[in-house]
Amino acid sequence: MRPHDMGTLFDEAAAGGARTVVHLDRPFDIAPRAGTRWTVTELAGLVRATAARLADAGVGPGDRVAIVKDNHWDYDLLACAMVRLGAVPALLSARLDTADLVTLLERLRPAALVTTSEVLARCRDTAAGEPARILVTVDSAAPDAVHLAALDASRPREPVRRHDDEPLVIHHTSGTTGVPKLVVHSTRTLVHKLARFEAVRYPGIGIRPDDVLANASAYGHGRTFCWTAVVVSLAPAGILILTGDDPETADPLLRAHPPTVVEALPASYIRLRQLTTRLDNPFRHVRLYISTYDAVHPPALRAYLTASRRARPLWMQGWGQTETGPLTFRFHTRRSTLESDAETTARRLGRPVPGRTRLRAVDPDTLRPVPRGRPGLLLVRTPALALGYIGEVDRWDAKRVGDWWSTGDMGVHHRDGSVSILDRAADTLPGMSCLRTEDVLEQRLPRALECVILGAPDGDPLPVVVTADGRLDPDAWKQATHGLPTLRDPAVLTWDEVPRTGTGKVRRAALARQLTGAAPAGTGRWT
């Protein structure tokens, strides 16, 4: 089966005989008493029942419905239920700052908000009025809101069909450089162009019927809605859902059902890495690791690839954006992560998808193409480009360059067709690549969980080193910075002291304000 309609995705998979068993690290928020083991048939029933409850609350065709809740895969189940009703789900991370969340809700103007009592209270404390006409809570009752479990699930609703080019779902960008953008995708862009392409059983990297897939993601973000379409339609033997990145919580589930394919946020790979060193590590059967959102650095790549007992495990690194879906892919092996230039090529993100994606580098001021091998602003052409931004039409139009789309990334389009990322345009500093400098530091500082370079309005850049205990040996730092551009003395923080997006990315502007009281140097023209 290839994905077609997200509103009936689970029904079609169940009718096709899918035997996938899903194991959760905690029960769904929309079914808290139903346990942690689910079949596809049971998931189809949950989506139908949830759609009936939302219809009972008053949700109907054409309504925008915002979802803001704790991180779990039922973000996507809720979205499928809303698509079934003909509504347009908007998935918003509960990790957003309250002010940013209220801003997005004001742009969205949803007919309904499905949320938790805590998030609803935060919004009410900040916003001028109620965030939506219909308020539904998933965890407990709240004043002037209806509790999802109290709504009537006994009257099933027939699926509402929509045109392939009509809005299907709304996601928001990571928000590393400021208030996230609300991105609208259609069935054509997200299902036909992205999910169907990925649902092909490619040799070596395609999902197999005997695979057990583990996912540790931010389920309110765009990647997992597409992932859901793919994995449900391909029906692997098992799916493991990790809602957090605490190693002690993840370990029992991974050990009970050792995965063969793992996809996780870069931040989750960092946090779970300690499991790779355990004697009976849970990654011993993995044949394929997948990462998106951000680069994973060579030390982490090596740790996970070495943890697998397969002869030739692969790591597939994708680069893309919420607006475009995946644009390039690169594969890593045990051997490639040991190459002498690994620390300088960690940001080489592979080649554009053949026949689907075109890339070019241009001068960011003149927008004229630059020669291959020279840094420039990266533009892309893809049939999977989203429909636009909610509430920011001018911003969307400003990122269109003729038939091309500005990614907002500075990079190099090499002569062999591959692409390297240097920096986000908003983070660019004269004479250095922040990202490459971060890669080198992480390579040279084994105790560092993460390194971040922040441009300062005056003087040298400020490095931030994240360690488990917030400590860093001065001699180790001195050795690590040998041969690098001049940097200030580092700020050393623990993981939880760093402001992050819902996908675990560092919110650089917020971190700079936290440490220096000023926004980082750079320009936001292409963000």
TrEMBL record:
<dbReference type="InterPro" id="IPR042099">
    <property type="entry name" value="ANL_N_sf"/>
</dbReference>
<dbReference type="GO" id="GO:0006631">
    <property type="term" value="P:fatty acid metabolic process"/>
</dbReference>
<protein>
    <submittedName>
        <fullName>Fatty-acid-CoA ligase FadD</fullName>
    </submittedName>
</protein>
<dbReference type="GO" id="GO:0031956">
    <property type="term" value="F:medium-chain fatty acid-CoA ligase activity"/>
</dbReference>
<dbReference type="InterPro" id="IPR000873">
    <property type="entry name" value="AMP-dep_synth/lig_dom"/>
</dbReference>
<dbReference type="Pfam" id="PF00501">
    <property type="entry name" value="AMP-binding"/>
</dbReference>
<comment type="similarity">
    <text>Belongs to the ATP-dependent AMP-binding enzyme family.</text>
</comment>
<keyword id="KW-0436">Ligase</keyword>
<dbReference type="InterPro" id="IPR020845">
    <property type="entry name" value="AMP-binding_CS"/>
</dbReference>
<feature type="domain" description="AMP-dependent synthetase/ligase">
    <location>
        <begin position="29"/>
        <end position="389"/>
    </location>
</feature>
